[in-house]
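Any chance you could type out some protein's one-letter sequence along with its backbone structure tokens so I can compare the two?
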Amino acid sequence: MKKRVLLFLVVLMSLLVLTACSADSNFSGGELDSAGGGEGSSIVVDNTNRKIIYTANLSIKSKDLLATTNEIKDMLLEDEWIESEDLTSNSNYITFRIKTSRLNGFIDSIRTNNETTNFRLESKDVSIHYLDVSSRIEAYELEKERLMELFENASMYEMIQINERISTIDAQLITLNRTILEYDSLVDYSVVKLWIYGPTANPNPPSYGTKLSRTFKMGWNGVVTVLQTSLQVVVFLIPFLIIIVPVGGIVWGILIYRKRKKDDNNK
């Protein structure tokens, strides 16, 4: 009986801790949007205690699309990467992941060396939510430790209950730790969306609808290509079928005739 009461108290205390963490996170929106910023000015908050996600959007005009693209790609470090790239004959839409610690220098270099027609910076402070998730992880891990201690001297029925609770905790920990990893990645590596366009291209980046339309056209073109290839294969095989089918029919007829004749002789 005492073990059941203790188990109930452990679970109740963990729920109270998690509820308190959620209540604390509701007092702050944790989001800040900003735009603009002059060249050479710092756009990254120099505060290691904050968890801020930065997303930069730039549009630059270029007379030599490929040369400009390659110059900017050469600026990447080994641990930075391109998330996506949509290159056409007169424009290129690239999404970079750049270390936040050098986001200032990366953007300043692009804006200094190219004709920048648009720049927007968005920042989102996730410090409160990050702390809330971290607190939840700590509370669940503490509860799991105490449940493991109770498990050693528990009855069979109590063992089943403890295992069920531990399974629930493990599932929650997987989700929460994944959230922390995603936040760490977004905080440490900022997103830079760069639109490079030539003299005949639209100075505005493609909208989501435009991207969907372009993707649909690519898929449709792929279907048409497959159908064309299939038709070419059929046309290619027609001469062989004209020859093979009649010859095969004759051979098959001869074999059947010989078999029947052999059967008649055996009778």
Notes: The beta strands are 32-33, 52-61, 81-87, 91-99, 115-125, 189-197. The CA atoms of residues 3 and 154 lie 7 Å apart. Helices lie at 2-25, 65-73, 103-113, 127-151, 156-188, 208-266. Confidence is low (pLDDT under 50) at residues 15-38.
